[in-house]
Amino acid sequence: MPLGQRQGDNGEARYCGAEAAFSSDIQQSLSFALGGSFDFIVAPLTDPVYRPSKAQQDSEGSAIVPPFSGSDLVLSPSQWSSHIVGKISTWLDLDSPDALMRSDSETTLKQEAGWASHLSLQACLLPTPRPLSCGNYARCVNQVLQGLSNMQLWLRIPLVSPAMEAAQGTENEDLLFLERDEITGRFKNDTWEWWNMFRTLCEHHSQLSVALDITAELPAPNAIKRWIGEPLRAAILHTSAFLTNKRGYPCLSKQHQNLITTLFTHNVQIVISGDCLHQVDEPPPPSTDANSNGAEDVYHAKHPLKSYLEYVSHLYRKMDPPTEQERFEMGYRDFLQAPLQPLMDNLEAQTYETFEKDSTKYSQYQKAVRAALLDRVPDRKVATTTTVLMVVGAGRGPLVRASLQAAEETGRKLRVYAVEKNPNAVVTLHSLIKLEGWEDVVTVISCDMRRWNAPEQADILVSELLGSFGDNELSPECLDGAQRFLKKDGISIPSSYTSFIGPITASKLHNDVKSYADLAHFETAYVVKFHSVARLAPPQPVFTFDHPNLETLMDNKRYVKLKFELSPDTGSALVHGFGGYFDAVLYKDVHLGIEPSTATPNMFSWFAIFFPLRKPIYIPAGSVLELHFWRCVGPTKVWYEWAVTAPSVSPVHNVNGRSYWVGL
Ligand SMILES: C[S@@+](CC[C@H](N)C(=O)[O-])C[C@H]1O[C@@H](n2cnc3c(N)ncnc32)[C@H](O)[C@@H]1O
């Protein structure tokens, strides 16, 4: 039975499983778990005593393979696929020094994965690899992955290494934390390193994901955070992670609660595992109903993990329901979109409609225009002054409306020009002006602002030509052209904007780019609603543009070199690319933006922008990442190039704008 239902959220995290021991009667194991309100079980498919090398030989010396598992008929196909996650035998050791063990392990792994695939299971749980010594295991798993249709393989990784867990509170703890593997030089007890080695050997296969074991100890918050950008499908929550409340029931520490809630919101399924460590008084079994026509009164023994499930379910139901904005954004999470090119292309009605729903954006503009009008026209000049305001790139008119409302609020008189180059939007602009009776105040100009010969100079130039990375929709080039008709002391709203960038772990996005199987997609920027993305360091400013541009020689080419340091408690991490954002100063203290630390709340017009790396870059704990970023301008296009030079070197991406550019 699902843990609950949050409005509009149909994620997998609603389903909770139980780890079950091997049973020759899987049907019984499943109905026991379902009777205890679990949704699925993680169960071994093969008797743990089975070893291929012990199979008998026939008279010709070929192995007689005994049935290594029960019949597929014991459950229906939908029961297998909806309620069973196969647990690959835990005795497997494909990196053992013992050749027989390796060969038995390889045979069993392939047999079990093949059997699970035959049953159409959604996933199989792979045993934890040896720390930083998993070459053969990963190779065999990669071979299995090559032949899989839809099944996922979940690699079981402890969130805290068993050695670290055992050393908690002892003087060995710090030494163990810093212990490095002799061969690889990597931190031996950072379990993220185990995962990273394994998935790198498996070529970042999209069907290989992680199931994290969660016990009583948790790593530092930043070390946990980096897992959010990894392909995390399940968290195996051990009964040993639970505390006991006053009434003797299991409960979790605040840190564990926060972690589980974060996992829920990232679509990670919880699997409860371990022995029952809390003896909770049970309510008496239901009494036999005398009127039940003699039907058998079946009393199900209470599932030993039921009280843990009830607590997890309580945490799920306690979560705040998603806000309206979150519900709007859910369908866009971690989904690659091509950025708009409003200069080169004409936006569609649907796109304008989405913009226009964002009341926060327009109320920020209204505030900025209001402040500019008050500064520009003192009270004593209100009756005699008409301010000339030009909305350049007016679309279907929302900034015209915001400006007129600001004028009304301040009692200032306005003459407005609405300049728009999209002929389709101009049609709507005309009808809006007629409908609202603004004909005496607003003039519509159907023209590219860079080429318009304005009949008079403007006091205020209002525009919104901003992309997710600020200047990526060519606001600088358009406004440099438009400032010809701005008075010398005129005001531009926005008066400046700055792009920001920071390294991210984003395995899903990277795999999605990879699935296009060409270079061009790795050298393209994407608009994305980041969700299962780990920000590894705070974003830093990249390029700033001021308007009006007072430079004698206008040049919108730019270059920066940035250094990012991961916080020391993060450990090592993998960078799949960079997250880009912007912040704009509309006027004085009125700003608008999506840079995470200062983002304007409740605004949904912009998602972040993702600049991928052709190959993910490994950042060893404590090392610095050096990024180079260029904004290049040619006669017909503007483009970005980017490269990493530390801790390792990437090629320069998008040389000469060969893959991605914005047309002028
Ligand atoms: C991001 S939309 C904003 C539309 C509207 N102001 C709003 O806030 O909903 C930018 C608008 O500017 C227009 N535009 C872009 N470059 C332009 C140019 N050089 N001259 C005139 N209009 C331009 C586009 O066609 C588009 O309608």
UniProtKB/TrEMBL annotation:
Signal peptide: none annotated. One of its GO terms (cellular component) is cytosol. Residues 324-493 form the PRMT5 arginine-N-methyltransferase domain. Coiled coil: none annotated. Residues 496-662 form the PRMT5 oligomerisation domain. PROSITE patterns: SAM_MT_PRMT. The record marks 355 as: Critical for specifying symmetric addition of methyl groups. Residues 38-318 form the PRMT5 TIM barrel domain. One of its GO terms (molecular function) is protein-arginine N-methyltransferase activity. It comes from the Eukaryota. Pfam families: PRMT5 (PF05185), PRMT5_C (PF17286), PRMT5_TIM (PF17285). InterPro entries: Arg_MeTrfase, Arg_MeTrfase_PRMT5, PRMT5, PRMT5_C, PRMT5_TIM, SAM-dependent_MTases_sf. Belongs to the class I-like SAM-binding methyltransferase superfamily. This is Protein arginine N-methyltransferase.
